[in-house]
Design goal:
13% strand; alpha+beta
């Protein structure tokens, strides 16, 4: 269990000498194991580089790394393992930490338009024409600095079942108006709702077709 937490495969918080593991995170890990997706997760910068490659964005990696990564992505669909589960496993360390908050609907709309906030998952579903309703929820990537600023500005309240999910990353997201398809797809595919999960897997497949066509 501690090894999975250290590797970023399970979301958990320390409480004294014990770890409190997020239930959804535990369910996701069980699903990935059941699907046979037990390969080593990508380092955070490689996870974002993979998404950038699929969308023809600047990836920030060396030519040798790019060649190896492209080959892995191209051959992902040829694997005997569930492709969606495999990519979810690869990108499981895409965020350094995950935080959930409760916030009013009016503030939620304003927050998503704030500087340094990159919509993903359900908040990018409309942009990618996935036909999903937000249901009053929002999901976004931010830097740790931006997260702290948002907490102060919007007086965000920690809530395990909150309607706002902020994912902290060191990736260069400042110029992104939305998360790349592979990232947004994995965020959706990790959801426990069957329709949302399926939409995420479709977006992952679409992103992989992009790399195969280059």
């Amino acid at each position: 269990m501690r090894a999975l937490i250290a590797a970023g495969n399970l979301a958990a918080t320390r409480a004294g000498n014990q770890w409190l593991v997020d239930a959804d995170s535990l369910d996701r890990q069980a699903d990935l194991v059941a699907a046979g997706a037990t390969g080593r997760p990508f380092a955070p910068r490689i996870a974002w580089a993979a998404a950038a490659l699929c969308d023809d964005l600047a990836d920030g990696i060396s030519s040798a790394e790019r060649h190896r990564l492209r080959n892995r992505l191209v051959h992902a669909t040829a694997s005997t393992v569930d492709t969606c589960a495999l990519v979810r496993r690869w990108l499981s360390r895409r965020a350094q930490s995950l935080h959930r908050y409760r916030i009013g609907e009016r503030d939620l709309v304003e927050l998503l338009e704030a500087r340094g906030v990159t919509p993903t998952g359900i908040s990018a579903a409309d942009t990618y024409n996935l036909g999903l309703a937000t249901g009053g929820a929002a999901d976004a990537y931010v830097s740790e600095h931006t997260r702290r600023e948002l907490e102060k500005t919007y007086v965000l309240i920690d809530s395990v079942r909150g309607n706002l999910t902020l994912r902290v990353t060191d990736a260069a997201i400042a110029d992104l108006t939305k998360a790349p398809r592979l990232i947004a797809g994995v965020d959706l595919a990790d959801d426990t709702d069957a329709r949302t999960h399926a939409a995420g897997c479709r977006l992952i497949s679409e992103a992989l077709r992009g790399i195969q066509g280059t």
